[in-house]
Amino acid sequence: DVKVTQSSRYLVKRTGEKVFLECVQDMDHENMFWYRQDPGLGLRLIYFSYDVKMKEKGDIPEGYSVSREKKERFSLILESASTNQTSMYLCASRGSMPDTQYFGPGTRLTVL
Amino acid sequence: ELKVEQNPLFLSMQEGKNYTIYCNYSTTSDRLYWYRQDPGKSLESLFVLLSNGAVKQEGRLMASLDTKARLSTLHITAAVHDLSATYFCAVEVSGYALNFGKGTSLLVTP
């Protein structure tokens, strides 16, 4: 079974803090993704990566950056957290062939 | 910009009834995915549809794809309470990234 894990299920941070969200997959997938999910807005793509050290902006990259130093790990970074970044963050991975994305359990981030 | 529209967004149905959720999208694609999300949980893959005319069935759920009409349907047969969840369709356009619909929140009542 594919396993995608995220470092925290719940996180509370203060405005202005630097926040790291970690995602690890165990299926040797080339592609990894970060989404945020908000009520009424569905899932929106923040960034994705198709290879180590490669990244592409999604629909809402502002205020975020990413890092992929190893194939199995994809990190989302909030350089200076703001209250409007309070959300559920979902990581996903997929191999190179057409297939579904496999999602992690999510991190519910609250920025106070 | 790709738009993915699901309807209805909210659906309350009685056990034993049939219903269809619709997913329309605005640009050419032959890769469409359906997911299920239970409250407080992550997304679980239901169906992968990779060509025009594709039909997949699992239990009481059946999904189909018409790429010419840019339409996918998720049909529920004889609903049971365990099917209560939010259902998302997602369209793949390029670079493997998905564009999601806003989700259909389904409640099955006795």
What's the number of helices of chain B?
0
Strand content of chain A: over 45%
Spans of chain A of 5+ residues with little confidence (pLDDT < 50)? Answer: none
Distance between the termini of chain B: 41 Å
Tell me roughly what share of residues is in helical segments of chain B: under 10%
Percentage beta strand of chain B: over 45%
Query: What's the story with the biggest beta sheet of chain B?
Result: 6 strands, mixed
Measure the end-to-end span of chain A. Answer: 37 Å
CATH level-4 homologous superfamily of chain B: Immunoglobulins
Number of strands of chain A: 11
What is the count of β-strands of chain B? 11
Order of helices and strands of chain B: EEEEEEEEEEE
Query: Could you please say which CATH topology of chain A applies here?
Result: Immunoglobulin-like
Mean pLDDT of chain B: 93
- The shape of chain B is globular
CATH A-level architecture of chain B: Sandwich
Task: Kindly report the oligomeric state of this protein.
Answer: heterodimer
Quick one: CATH class of chain B?
Mainly Beta
Say which CATH homologous superfamily of chain A is assigned. Immunoglobulins
> How many domains is the backbone of chain A divided into?
1
Provide the residue-averaged pLDDT of chain A.
94
Describe the structure.
The complex is a heterodimer of chains A (112) and B (110). Chain A is 0% helix and 54% strand. Chain A has strands at 4-6, 10-13, 19-25, 31-38, 42-49, 56-57, 64-70, 73-78, 87-94, 102-103, 107-111. Chain A starts with a strand and ends with a strand. Chain A has one domain (4-95): Immunoglobulin-like (Sandwich). Chain B is mainly β and 110 residues long. Chain B has strands at 4-7, 10-14, 19-25, 32-37, 43-49, 55-58, 61-66, 71-76, 85-92, 98-100, 104-109. In chain B, the strands form two sheets. In chain B, strands 2, 4, 5, 9, 10 and 11 form a six-stranded mixed β-sheet that branches. Chains A and B meet through strand 4, strand 5, strand 9 and strand 10 of A and strand 5, strand 9 and strand 10 of B.
